[in-house]
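Course assignment 3, question 2. Fill in each field.
Student: A.L.
Task: Predict the tertiary structure for the chain below.
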Amino acid sequence: MYLRRFRIRLTLATALSALLLVGAGAVYLAAVLADRSQAEARVVATEQVADIAAQPDPAKAPDWLRENAWVVDTAGVTAPLGEVYVGAPVQDLAEQARDPDWGAGSALREVWSDDEHYFAAARLRPDGQVVVTATPLDNTDAEIVRQRWYVALVAVGVTALLTGLTWLLAGRMLAPAVRAQQFQRDFLADAAHELRTPIAVIRATASQALSRPREAEEYVRTLTEIRAATERAGESVVQLLDLARLDAGTVEPVRMPLRVDLLTEEIVATAAAGGAAVELTNARPAVVDGDDILLRQAIDNVVRNAIARATHVRVGVATYCKEVVVTVTDDGPGFDPAVLPHVFRRFARGHGQGHGLGLALVRSIVALHDGRAEAVNRAEGGAEVRLHLPLSDTGTA
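Answer field:
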């Protein structure tokens, strides 16, 4: 939650900063573009009045050149040279052009009115007449408006892009912290989930034992139950820590050539010596590059999980193509069909058996060795778990 708030605040701060900086740049750019458009229109107005004034007879200039143009003679009489559809301060401009201290032969003025905007220009001819023109700025104003819209859209786009990039980069930078936070929450939830039952058993058993005086045999039985629950809690803690280290990527396997068939044979022999009905049906020699301790733990977990839910367990080791497959088959009830697709997830329990961590730990260990784990229910009854591991380049021993 705090990391998400930090990400949001960082993104908002970046968006505000980008809006201010990009906005200021956009205003400056729009002003520069508007000045350039005005300058171009000013040049056009100046060239128009100069072209008419240069004609031997302004009244005979081309029609398009004489639009919105006037001539003021030496007596101050004003006459339009062509079609006129704007009003202009003709006399004022003529006087300014004739004044050597003010206009020095020319004058230019930007005129605004309620519905008109144009450049009015004047040019003094050698014969003393003054030519005055008015160049409308409708197209220039429309161009300036378009430029402002373009600049505004670009500014909004840049701001949005910077904001989006900040959001994505902040997410990427905070991802390890988010994963660590999520990992911590998952670990605490897993620990609470897994330790709740044994702690409840210990508390209930101890409370029952203390409720009244009992015979020595009853105390022995009670303490035996407490010890079993404690061992279960301890085993769960060990598995939780192992799984946490694997998920966090802090476990670096010590890889070396390992005879999986001999390792499996040893695990089966140890389980059989403890009274379990388990046998090694076949064990083809196969070598993998793996960590002896981790793979021993994975295979042992699968075997013990099968023993816990079945009366007879068979274990085999075979090679297919470039991988070795350790198969553990039992005659138990099989996995609950609803649980089977998720059997390698934490706390997935088949028919209420198992701690819910063993097979999850198996999957993590096998994945650490670039392998995969599979579980199926057999058509003839029981379950089968297969561990696929890549063969070593050394082949078989």
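Instructor remarks: The radius of gyration is 46 Å. Residues 55-136 form a domain with the Beta-Lactamase fold (CATH 3.30.450).
Grade: pending
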